[in-house]
Amino acid sequence: MKGDTLQIFVSMIVYMAVVMGIGLYFAKRANESSDNYFLGGRSLGPWVTAMSAEASDMSGWLLMGLPGVAYWFGLSDAIWTAIGLAVGTYLNWFFVAKRLHNYSVVAGDSITLPDFYSNRFKEKNKIIMTISAVFILVFFTVYASSCFVTVGKLFSTLFGFKYQYMMIAGAAFVIFYTFVGGFLAESASDTMQAFVMIVALVTTLAVGTAAAGGITAVIANARSIPGFFEFFGIASPILGADGTQTVINGVPQFGVAGRYGIYTVLSTMAWGLGYFGMPQVLLRFMAIRNSGELKQSRRIATVWVLISLVAAVSIGIIGRALFPTAISTYSEAESVFVVLSQNLLPAFLAGFVMAGILAATISSSDSYLLIAASAFAKNIYQHLINKDATDKQVMNVSRIVLLAISIIGIVIALDESSIIFTIVSFAWAGFGATFGPITLFSLFWKRTTREGAIAGMLSGGIMVFIWKLLLKPMGGIFGVYELLPAFIISCIFIYMVSKMSAEPSAEIQNEFEIVRKKALE
């Protein structure tokens, strides 16, 4: 291992040791009860709530996937995605956070999202709970695999080792850490990792801009590529038979700029709808110690997201100016952040910047694994399989499920050519369409019924698969991001089926009014 590579390796090991220490520190408290292990006993402060929510949400795609899109296709696809996410983040904190926190307490002191949905409609046979737990297992397994892909690409690019070995090693680290510490360790470390992520992004952005000759030079280079620096156009890299970009006399070749119309803009901005159904974010709303502190959390989260998204998109644009031929495929483009850091920063500092990617990956994958495991252990095992299960049994089952999900995620991630952005977009659509509409209707429409909730969750989740696998390949009007049509269809089903079914009981309506009045305080 060369000297520079060794320094990077050492600084990353130091970082991983700190993260592991946090997990061990919180292990005793986390293991006191399933409430502590899965929701931290509703003890999070405003800073931890905000920073851990955003770090767990953004994942490795913020530092690899999004810059990769900007490097390969230019500004439009990346910036409209970023705008949609920024708007969605703010609206979710503004409208959903306080009401969900209060409602989760009123509705049977719910500690998981399936718990909340089931308690909200006073279920006896736990159908909603089961459906939501199954969808969480499916989509979080896919999500976890995207994190493992990120780790594999990072270590493989840095150290030259075989991708599959690096991916499995990184996954093992994440599994052990989540296995030990639970929600409290996850939230505390995610807060630290949120700071590492934003420092890594801003540092790389500043150094990259200077190395490229300043903002003017970066923009001039971007504008020289057809469609690359346009809001309503998109670059079209010319690819050879092997899928790599054609290079002539040291210049990467692009075709005629593609059109990026309003329909495509709306499709891309639909990413923002996903926030209303993201379990890893919604759980933070439920876990804060005082709903009155959510206003401060909203401000912190919004500022963090704006800075991070702008920096991530800009890094992709700068990477194309500095290293136009160093990356030849879309899959490799997701390593542009790594390439910039390795080439522009001192080795030891580059190691800590690389830790930013590791931070993003860990902060997301631990959330995904823990929520998926809790969905099965609390909502299927304890409520359906073994109703007399002790707290210790529930936690043991959750850890077994965590291992099982991780193994499936590793198998999915074995393909080195996997595109992180593509994997994340599918799982994001799944959560957004399955849980987003029912979350909003549950919180804001008293007339929502249990039957409507079931219909909405099933129609939204299933439509994501139908649109992605059957309709989207047809192109044309079906080329829209699957989250948008699935979200709309779910809303329609919730409304229509609720109208056709009997009104909710007086108990359910009274609880709704209690929460509504609390939201106005």
Structure in words:
With 521 residues, the protein is mostly helical. It has one domain: Sodium/glucose cotransporter (Up-down Bundle), CATH 1.20.1730. The protein has 20 helices and 4 strands. The strands form 2 sheets. The protein has a two-stranded antiparallel sheet.
Which CATH class is shown? Mainly Alpha
State the oligomer.
single chain
For the biggest sheet, the summary is:
2 strands, antiparallel
Strand order of the largest sheet: 1-4
List the SSEs and their pairings.
Layout (H helix, E strand, L loop, with lengths): L2 H28 L3 H6 L6 H13 L2 H13 L1 H32 L6 H8 L6 H33 L3 H49 L3 H9 L9 E2 L12 E2 L2 E2 L5 E2 L2 H8 L9 H9 L6 H29 L7 H4 L2 H9 L2 H39 L5 H22 L7 H25 L5 H22 L11 H18 L5 H15 L1
Antiparallel strand pairs: 1-4, 2-3
Helix pairs in contact: 1-8, 1-15, 3-8, 3-11, 3-12, 3-15, 4-5, 4-12, 4-15, 5-11, 5-12, 5-20, 6-7, 7-8, 7-15, 7-16, 7-17, 7-18, 8-12, 8-14, 8-15, 8-16, 9-12, 12-14, 14-15, 15-16, 17-18, 17-19, 18-19
Concise account of the structure shown:
With 521 residues, the protein is mostly helical.
List keywords for this structure.
single chain; 521 residues; Sodium/glucose cotransporter; two-stranded antiparallel sheet; globular
